[in-house]
Design goal:
By secondary structure, the protein is an alpha/beta fold. It has a single domain, classed as Rossmann fold. It has 12 helices and 8 strands. The chain has an 8-stranded mixed beta sheet, sandwiched between helices. Helix 3 crosses helix 4 and helix 4 crosses helix 9. The longest helix is centred in the first third of the chain and has 26 residues. The model has no long low-confidence stretch (mean pLDDT about 95). InterPro entries: AB_hydrolase_1 (IPR000073), AB_hydrolase_fold (IPR029058).
């Protein structure tokens, strides 16, 4: 199993690190690129990576900047990221650069390892999967491809077969946060220095929601975790893959201050008929997950009714039975089977 990094900006030398399951024995295999969420590093996908060769796919989990192994943000980048005073154009350029990094990473990986392109028999090509906050990076990558060099655009058009939003929160897509939403991150009664750690443990829980068929936000369990199953945090999850320091702290201003840019990026990536028109798009969510992820799936469904052109491909949706926000850790085979289904 390989662990290394790829330069994604020749001018700055910025790199993204990754872990790779390696090529399976099948010749025309699909490669799934996964982007992690907040707090938890790319190693949260390790159990899926271990299974990938036996399923005939290649699975690559990359590290977002500034998480371990990837290039930290510069002082100038941090200033743009964390300041609410920056103008929209400056923040938009910052976010587009993050999307370019993901797209260039995939393009470089394709060339470096000579990945098989999409074939007539249904194999080959690449799927881009974002988990939780990582869904924002997926949107940015897809929506910003048109401003990359033409050779990269053409190569990605030949290779990208699917885009998967896996357990997003509405805020990661620039969509409104439901008034019912609660988490430790925004609870002023929790000491500020403990909020990220508390959220990290809480969001690994399972939740018993009253009714999903009615699409009623008031029927979701927003606060109280289920006693039916131990949270993923206590299922052999190494402390090393949870970040509570400066790298994880950059994610909150990234989300909170960027909604004006994230919403058009997600909508362009998912509803613009000129952006990868033949690519499959899907939203996946567990039925025992945190309320914010279910709310996001419903919000995308509502958004699709208004935003998707009549002649464009419909988005596919799936509730994964018995799954929480960390099904890829607790039940990696179930998770990987679903990822392959929508790849």
């Amino acid at each position: 199993m390989a662990f290394t990094s790829i330069v994604v900006n020749l001018l700055t030398g910025a790199e993204l690190s990754y872990i790779d399951s390696g090529a399976p024995t099948q010749s025309s295999y699909i490669t799934i690129f996964a982007i992690h969420g907040m707090i938890f590093t790319k190693e949260i996908f390790q159990r899926v990576i271990d299974l990938a060769p036996s399923k005939g796919v290649r699975f690559v989990a990359l590290s977002r900047r500034p998480f371990p192994g990837s290039t930290p943000y510069s002082v100038e980048e941090l200033d743009i990221l964390q300041s609410a005073d920056n103008d929209d154009a400056q923040r938009g350029a910052f976010l587009e650069a993050r999307g370019h990094e993901i797209a260039v990473f995939i393009d470089t990986f394709i060339r470096k390892f000579n990945l098989p392109p999409i074939s007539s028999c249904g194999g080959g090509g690449v799927a881009l999967l974002g988990w939780s906050l990582g869904t924002a990076l997926v949107s940015l990558a897809i929506s910003s491809v048109g401003t990359l060099p033409e050779d990269i655009q053409k190569r990605l058009e030949r290779y990208v077969r699917s885009v998967i939003l896996y357990e997003p929160g509405p805020i990661a897509l620039g969509l409104p946060t439901p008034k019912q939403y609660w988490s430790f991150l925004g609870d002023p009664t929790v000491p500020e220095d403990l909020r990220i750690a508390a959220f990290g443990r809480w969001c690994t829980s399972y939740f018993d929601h009253s009714d999903l068929s009615g699409r009623n936000l008031n029927k979701l369990s927003w606060v109280l975790a289920s006693p039916s199953r131990v949270p993923s945090f206590y299922n052999g999850m190494p402390a090393a893959i949870q970040r509570h320091g400066d790298d994880a702290m950059t994610d909150l201003p990234f989300l909170v201050l960027s909604s004006k840019q994230l919403l058009p990026a997600y909508r362009r990536a998912f509803f613009d008929p000129e952006v990868f028109p033949d690519v499959k798009r899907s939203v996946l969510c567990g039925d025992k997950t945190c309320g914010f992820a279910i709310a996001a799936l419903w919000a995308v469904q509502d958004d699709e009714k208004e935003q998707r052109p009549a002649d464009a491909k419909a988005i596919e949706y799936k509730f994964i039975p018995g799954a929480n926000h960390f099904v890829h850790w607790d039940d990696p085979e179930k998770a990987l089977d679903v990822f392959i289904e929508f790849a």
